[in-house]
Amino acid sequence: LLANEFGIIVAHTEADALARAERIAQALKARGLPNYYGIQRFGIRGDNAQRGREALLRRGPRQQWLRRFLLSAYQSALFNVWLAERIRRGWFEQLQVGDVAKKTDTGGLFEVEDIAVEAPRFDRGEITYTGPIYGARMRWPSGEPGELERAILEQAGVSDDMLRRASLDGSRRAARLVIDDVEIEPAADGLRFRFRLPKGAYATTLLREFMRA
Q: Is the peptide bond before 186 cis (omega within 30 degrees of 0)?
C-alpha cells in the first residue's frame, strides 16, 4: 500500500464555499499539511489514548490485543502533541538541524546536518522531517528537535523504562505532507473533494483544514 484515494462530499456548505475551499487548497499546496492522526484514531468516545496511558502504567486491560491497540493510540496522541508544539514554535515550514528527515520516495531516514543543502529538497517535497512514535528503539533527533521530543515525553510523565516494559519499539512518522492536488467541485448541496494521501495519513485531517469543525 503506497497511498489511498478519496472522494468525499461535504454537505450543507455556505454560498461562497467553493471559492474559499480553493484558496485553502492553494495554501495547503504551498505550505503542506500537518500529518496529524485523525480523530477516529482515538475511538468513538475519544478515550483510547487515555486508556493507552493507563495500560502503560500497567492498569489493564488484560487482553493483549486490546492493550497493544490502546498503547498505539497513546503513542499517536503524543505525536499529535509534539506536532502541535512544533507548529506553535514556527517550525512547521522549515527543517531544523538535528531533525530526522525521511526521503519521500524511498522512506530512508537521515539526520539533517546542513540546512542549506537540504532546504531545497524539503521545499520540493523530496524529503520531510519526521516526528516521534515513542518507543525504546526509536531513533532520536539531536539538537533542539531532540530536546523538544524529550520534553514532550517528560511532560507526559513517561520514561524510557516504561516504554521498554510495555515492549514499545517506536518508529518515526512523516510530519508534513506535500499536497499536490485537491480537486474540488460543486455537488448537490455541497462540495465534492477528490484527493490522494500516502498510507497512514487521514482524510479527516485534510478535511479539517477546510471545515474547521
A: no
